[in-house]
Amino acid sequence: MVLLCHRTPEGVSQKPRRGEGFGVQAVEHGVDEEERNVVHVFTTGEKIDWGASFVSLLSSLTMCGPFPFVCTILARAPVEPAPKESMASPPEPSEHSMAFEALVYNYLREKKPKLLTDMFDEESRQEFEKNNYLCEDNPLLSSPWSDALLKKYARFRYDRMKERNEGRLEVWECLKCKTRFTTHESHLTRHIGAHEDLPCPCVVEDCEESCKCPSSLISHLKDKHGLRTDTLSRPELARLKQVESEFAKNAEVFREKYFPIGAFIGFNTIKRLDTQEMEDPVCRECCEIINSATTRRRHVAGHLKLSYPCVFEGCECKGVPCTLAAHFTKKHFTKVSDLDEDQLVEYKRIKLDFANVVKKEVSKYFPHRDQIREEEPSI
């Protein structure tokens, strides 16, 4: 690879010289034509550290005089493709590489053909069959598998199946107690508290109770103290957030012990529908189509004429929780998190009342799809 730096007189148009590798032309202005010469040449057979090379280049130009210059990329050298490896000796598999995909496809085709449709879509299957990818030295066809290979395959299987099962809950099995959980991967740490000592102390002052996990703590607050998370004081809420954060951090240390990637069983056969999919998007009152579940609830509040006063004394503004939060910031320059104790309690009361009223009435405006089918006359 060669880097060329040329001095050229001001106003002289000089086309870049093309050659092997990259050419970088430094054009200095205000120099006599006779003084044009090659200032600096780098020649190397390896990749150039462009940052270091340009620093060296600029240093050389500076030593020649304080000339302004511009640099131009001339050409990129053609890169010869790496020789193809024999199909009988595949490259070392790397996670999610095309080579490893081919090894997995070959393994499933030979040993577990029923799983092919779970992990490869029709287009991918046709592509592999078209190329007739056969591998005699496939490590997946040998046993026993190494721990590293087992983990690699399990991760590939999980990621590939997750892509093809959007909206379905995952099934995991705890290695210690063999209990199966139908949930999301991120929720598995909750169970770790049942096996490890990861105390979650009560956030209420003078209460010495300690729970196994944050969800148990929330149940304790409700059952023992009559407190929901939306009615906690600011200090109590801050302590709860800290407890949840500490638990998640400590439980993650034991994740591989109880739920390694190999503990993934599969996906629940029943797709979990969220509220947005379950509700009919057409409002029965005004026929407006609203696709967002959150926006539907604000829409229902409009029909119900729900309105709550601002928590700032003397302010006559009214609205629903989300518009009030925006009002606090715009009018009073205060975020919800910065409200004082009394204001925060009142705002939480407003949110709770809004949620309860809308929850009770929303089906009258946006009924569930099953409800619509039941109301349709049979033919």
UniProtKB/TrEMBL annotation:
SMART domains for this protein: ZnF_C2H2 (SM00355)
- The domain of life for this entry's organism is Eukaryota
Specify the C2H2-type domain's residue ranges. Answer: 172-195, 200-225, 281-303, 308-332
Q: Which InterPro entries match?
A: Znf_C2H2_type
Q: Quote the protein name from its UniProt record.
A: C2H2-type domain-containing protein
Higher taxonomy: Eukaryota, Metazoa, Ecdysozoa, Nematoda, Chromadorea
